[in-house]
Write a structure and sequence with these properties.
single chain, alpha/beta, Alpha-D-Glucose-1,6-Bisphosphate, Chain A, domain 3, 4 domains, 23 strands, 35% helix, globular
């Protein structure tokens, strides 16, 4: 796959892109994202990857030559860039990060005014066309660059603390794994009671992968939780826009299972009393989580996978919050953006009430996850994804029950009385992704066996 993706620009440095590519992207962005503004205000931040400093420099050089007035936020989390873009009224912003990708990768996440994402369908396609057609022309009057200053981090931490909705004296005992990523710069202030591990910034990610969805990335956190008899553990990805949990046994809690917990804490924090507040969820979300949201009086709204799709829909439908299987959680109060830290604080807030009633983290999660048997997302490398999807559809028609309904918003989600199936192409990796959920483990085993065989041919 190339450097330009559905949600952002991302790839292996020196293979999929180089500094000249980044420079030309910087020249093109103001023309595409902020047209007609002679000297647009742009905000730039970066993660701690070893190439991020050089990538930032090349990007800023292009932006300045294109006439932008650039503010450099420096080392920061991705949600910090979202926050200051909207809060301080920047015309555009870029976070230099490859998020949860391996250390060899890097990339650019672009937002426009009010922190609306710029994806391939609404701007990055044009940036790619300009970059590939030749070096874009510089502005007649170049812009400038300045540092955001040391007050940015305390200001951001203060906002998060104000919106945390958790009593620090709740008595919870938990661990936080920073994955040697950007959450390291604020975790000790926002989670003062936590056992903190891997909070030294290191873009080589020496302790484990910066992707918490990988089981081996969670092993260290799980051991810390079990060995210390803690209530739960939190793990952030490399740029801290995602948060995930393990329970008191060190067992992974699939992130979509916690959408109702995030929604419950968010509604209480906001004092929302309107009838049927909307909560977004992606096409891979468990039926158990959707049912739990309805039981809370919420109206679930299904959206395609990815922040470039979720954020605009959250604003359009007026949802209060939402979440994804991948561990992104969105908040209307956070400008419709995702914040791993705020999500973790909200889940802890919800769990504190459960813990006061004598329930463990696993029991809180089981109230949602225990309703159905879920496969989790299964990834397949196939040469011809379209042909594989066609085989899945034929297999489903022949082997599965009669469909109750179907959604084609992101791949295909087929609903049955006994469960559901989603098959979709990854927008960021060379995979075909399958997930299924059934009323019994036996039925799930049958369905995933049949469909997996269909994918692999």
């Amino acid at each position: 796959m190339g450097f330009f993706k559905a949600y952002d620009m991302r790839g292996t440095f020196g293979v999929d892109f180089d500094l000249d590519t980044v420079y030309r992207v910087g020249l093109a962005l103001p023309r595409v994202v902020t047209p007609g503004i002679p000297h647009p205000r742009w905000l730039v931040g970066r993660d701690c990857r070893e190439t991020s400093g050089d990538v930032r420099d090349a990007l800023v050089r292009g932006l300045v030559e294109a006439g932008a007035e650039v503010t450099d936020l420096g080392l920061c989390t991705t949600p910090m860039v979202y926050f200051f873009t909207a809060e301080d009224g920047y015309d555009g912003s870029v976070m230099v990060t490859a998020s949860h990708n391996p250390p060899s990768d890097n990339g650019l996440k672009v937002s426009k005014r009010t922190s609306l994402p710029v994806g391939y369908a609404d701007g990055l396609d044009e940036v790619e066309r300009i970059v590939k057609s030749g070096t874009p022309a510089a502005a007649r009057e170049p812009g400038s660059v300045r540092s955001a200053g040391a007050e940015s981090l305390p200001r951001y931490v203060a906002w998060q603390r104000e919106h945390a909705a958790i009593d620090a004296s709740a008595g919870l005992r938990y661990a936080v794994d920073c994955s040697n990523g950007m959450s390291s710069i604020l975790v000790r202030e926002l989670f003062p009671c936590a056992v903190v591990i891997n909070d030294t910034l290191d873009g080589r990610f020496p302790c484990h992968s910066p992707n918490p969805l990988k089981s081996d990335a969670r092993e260290q956190l799980a051991s810390v939780v079990r060995e210390n008899g803690l209530d739960c553990g939190i793990i952030f990805d490399g740029d801290a826009d995602r948060a995930m949990f393990v329970d008191e046994r060190g067992e992974f809690v699939q992130p979509d299972i916690l959408i109702p917990a995030v929604a419950g804490a968010t509604l209480r924090a906001a004092g929302v009393a309107n009838c049927k507040p909307k909560v977004i969820h992606d096409v891979r979300t468990s039926r158990g989580a959707i049912e739990a949201l309805r039981e809370m009086g919420c109206e679930p709204v299904m959206v395609p996978v990815g922040h470039a799709f979720a954020k605009p829909i959250l604003r359009k439908v007026g949802a209060v919050c939402g979440g994804e299987l991948a561990g992104h959680y969105y908040f209307s109060e956070f400008f419709g953006c995702d914040s791993g830290v705020l999500a973790a604080l909200r889940v802890l807030s919800e769990f504190a009430a459960e813990r006061a009633s004598g329930r463990t983290f696993s029991e809180m999660a089981l109230a949602v996850s225990g309703r159905y048997a879920n496969s989790g997302e299964m990834n397949f490398r196939v040469e011809d994804k379209d042909a594989a999807i066609a085989r899945v559809m034929e297999c489903a028609k022949a082997r599965l029950p009669e469909e109750v309904s179907r959604s084609d918003m992101d791949g295909v989600r087929m609903e049955y009385a006994e469960g559901w199936v989603n098959i979709r192409k990854s927008n960021t990796e060379p995979y075909l992704r399958l997930i299924a959920e059934c009323d019994t483990p036996e039925r799930l085993s049958d369905w995933t066996g049949w469909l997996s065989s269909a994918i692999t041919g």
